[in-house]
Amino acid sequence: MNQTGLAQFLLHVGDSQLILSHRLAEWCGHAPELELDIALANIGLDLLGQARTALSLAGEIEGLGRDEDNLAYFRTEREYRNLLLCEQPNGDFAQTMVRQWLMDLYHLELFTALSQSQQADVAAFAVKSLKEVKYHLRFSTTWMERLSLGTAEAHEKTQQGLNQLWRFSAELFEQTADEQQLVVQGILPDFAPLKAAWTAQVQTELQRFGLSLPDTGAYRSGAKQGLHTEHLGFILAELQYMQRSYPNMAW
């Protein structure tokens, strides 16, 4: 088994969940309704739990003595492997829901496929995560319906959110050469059919919502090479401040 490739893939998954969790946490105390405030915080906690599991597995597999805390707090921006979509600013509530909906559909395809992995720990992680993902998708789909099929202003803001974020969807199903080796070994799934299923589902639902894909297409990528937008550095400055200021502190 290509342990380096699997560790890097798990870092990619864990980093994506961690950064998306952080973005959702930014809504705490600022969401449009108290119920939404609690719901977004809970989804963020689910994602944080997934991030902890993925980062812990990555640390065990790479064998360098790094645990989840070390990986989260002491890597630089260029060492992070999270999807660019996850680090994008919340914008308004509609844009946050578009980002969450796109990610939830992606997570459904990803974890369903990973649940069949020949690597027992990866499969167990995916099975557990899938239970949470299905709830997340129901939540984001419900709000996509309410916003896109509601008032003209809500529909317009939802379309604007899709226009802003769609360019970052190109890399969701990209695979590295190391990951392709793991596909052959049955550790990771081939992302090509997952991408086809995800794209078909997105297009079907957008038609139902009365929304359209942007003309510019999806073209931004670089997550697995550590190439990020300007937003990640600000997130990490906030996320890592305490541990970097007081290394190895404990509550």
Q: What this model shows, in words?
A:
The chain has 251 residues and is mainly alpha-helical. Helices cover 67% and strands 0% of the residues. It contains eleven helices and no strands. Helix 1 runs antiparallel to helix 2 and helix 2 runs antiparallel to helix 6. It is globular, with a radius of gyration of 18 Å.
In short:
The protein is an all-alpha fold and 251 residues long. The protein has eleven helices and no strands.
Keywords:
251 residues, mainly alpha, 11 helices
Instruction: Quickly give the structural class.
Output: mainly alpha
Order of helices and strands: HHHHHHHHHHH
Biggest sheet details: none
The average pLDDT is 96
First-residue to last-residue Cα separation: 38 Å
Number of helices: 11
Contiguous uncertain segments of 5+ residues: none
Topology:
Blueprint: H1 3-25, H2 34-62, H3 68-73, H4 84-87, H5 93-114, H6 120-148, H7 152-165, H8 177-184, H9 191-209, H10 231-239, H11 241-245
